[in-house]
Amino acid sequence: MNISDVRAQFPILKQKVHGQPLVYLDSAASAQKPVQVIEALKHYYENDNANVHRGVHTLGARATDAYEGARVKAARFIHAKSEREIVFTRGTTSAINLVAYSYTRAVCQEGDEIVISAMEHHSNLLPWQQAAKAVGAQLKYIPLQPDGTFTLEDAERTITSRTKIVATSHISNVLGVANPVKQLAAIAHKHGAAILIDGAQSAPHIKVDVQELDCDFYTFSGHKMCAPTGIGVLYGKKALLDRMEPAEFGGEMIDHVDLHHSSWKEAPWKFEGGTPIIAGAIGLGAAIDFLEEIGMDNIAEHDRKLTAYAVERLNRVDGLTIYGPEDRRMGLVTFNLNDVHPHDVATVLDNYGVAVRAGHHCCQPLMRHFQAAATARASFYLYNTEEDIDRLMFALHKTIQYFDDQE
Ligand code: C6P
């Protein structure tokens, strides 16, 4: 993996911010787009733009082929058995909402349990809260260790024969820690429960094999892996998708419509009511081609090395706290500087051209666990370099100096 070649594919990285070369360390929020993806969108709109699945005309057929071709690529990317297990959604949030709404209603009765953890992103927490209320199920949490992780022993104790669904992130967007999802899937299955894995932070960084993990549902967002915003994927085992009713009704998803009764297409199309996210899916297909050409194993190794480099440098800073365990960390590091609000840290860093995220990262329960209102987070992707991290460290030292001078 030649990093200068990779960087050259990302036009946005060539700019200056506040007179300094941009150092983009916020890919966990949204990744940048390579020319290959931008060109794929441009090509689609300049040559093939039309609605899908309905037209007999040439553009309609081309658009349909490109849209359904992207589904095949997404299936290959996560090693699904079939493209029929790939539902296009707006992103991880809408994918989880679909399962929480529809699968819960199919399998849960009053008194059943849904099990998650307090480490989850709000998008993997609120949908379950709402679903549990709707069907009278109990929402249970696997307890967290002081470092914010959970153990398989605690998962064993929390999951029971009344548990119908277990949901957790593959990689936490705050801790960067990879959860033992394969073992968790085995525990869930032992109790007859299904497992959903929130892959928003794993699909961009590591090779994912849903068959190997034996997860029932896996969700991810295109925009965090070089694709456009507004496209994501819900993977579901075919038999489970077949049990689920659609959550949206209208054009495209139907088989037969009468005045008082209608029937739908098979999965995945029954979940894609209305004109689908055609350009987004084509952009996602181009992003998958781009990432696969570099190689997901190469990307994982690069991101792991950079993360270790950043952690090692940050650990040397007096008064800096890193959240989460040292090991199993991938793609990001979350921290706080003594006495300086993370929003102030991020603002001063921005003056040096360094973009990091500050806030609760859509994980308020986890923030409360750490008794922190907010944190700063630097996240890395295939276009970042050690030099980017050196620039972060330089800007961080300037930040410390600035606030020391204020005292
Ligand atoms: N996390 C972050 O800066 P959407 O917004 O639907 O594409 O993804 C939601 C989501 C779900 N799960 C995890 C683990 C995530 O990290 C995210 C998005 C961004 O951390 C934006 S809050």
Explain how this protein is built.
The protein is α/β, with parallel strands linked by helices and 407 residues long. It has two domains: 3-25 and 296-406, Aspartate Aminotransferase, domain 1, CATH 3.90.1150; 37-293, 3-Layer(aba) Sandwich (Aspartate Aminotransferase, domain 2). It is 41% helix and 17% strand. It contains 14 helices and 17 strands. The strands form five sheets. Strands 4-10-9-8-7-5-6 form a seven-stranded mixed β-sheet, sandwiched between helices. α2 packs antiparallel against α10, α3 crosses α10 and α4 (92-107) packs parallel to α5 (126-135). The termini are far apart. The structure holds ligand C6P.
Give me the secondary-structure topology.
Elements: H1 3-8, E1 16-17, E2 20-21, E3 23-24, H2 35-48, H3 58-77, E4 86-89, H4 92-107, E5 113-117, H5 126-135, E6 138-142, H6 152-158, E7 163-169, H7 181-190, E8 194-198, H8 210-213, E9 217-221, E10 232-236, H9 238-243, E11 254-257, E12 262-264, H10 278-294, H11 296-315, E13 320-322, E14 332-337, H12 342-351, E15 354-355, E16 357-359, H13 364-369, E17 375-379, H14 386-406
Parallel strand pairs: 3-15, 5-6, 5-7, 7-8, 8-9
Antiparallel strand pairs: 1-2, 4-10, 9-10, 11-12, 13-14, 14-17, 16-17
The structure holds ligand C6P.
User: Which homologous superfamily in CATH is the superfamily of the largest domain?
Assistant: Type I PLP-dependent aspartate aminotransferase-like (Major domain)
| Largest sheet features | 7 strands, mixed
CATH topology descriptor of the largest domain: Aspartate Aminotransferase, domain 2
Q: How many helices does DSSP assign?
A: 14
Q: Which range best describes the helical content: under 10%, 10-25%, 25-40%, 40-55%, 55-70% or over 70%?
A: 40-55%
How many separate domains?
Answer: 2
Give the termini separation: 46 Å
CATH class of the largest domain: Alpha Beta
Instruction: Report the radius of gyration as a whole number of Å.
Output: 22 Å
Secondary-structure-based class equals alpha/beta
- Counted beta strands: 17
Which cofactors or ions or other ligands sit in this model?
Answer: ligand C6P
Low-confidence segments: none
**What would you call the quaternary organization?**
single chain
Q: What strand line-up does the widest sheet have?
A: 4-10-9-8-7-5-6
Sum up the overall morphology in one term: globular
Instruction: Average the pLDDT over all residues and give the rounded result.
Output: 97
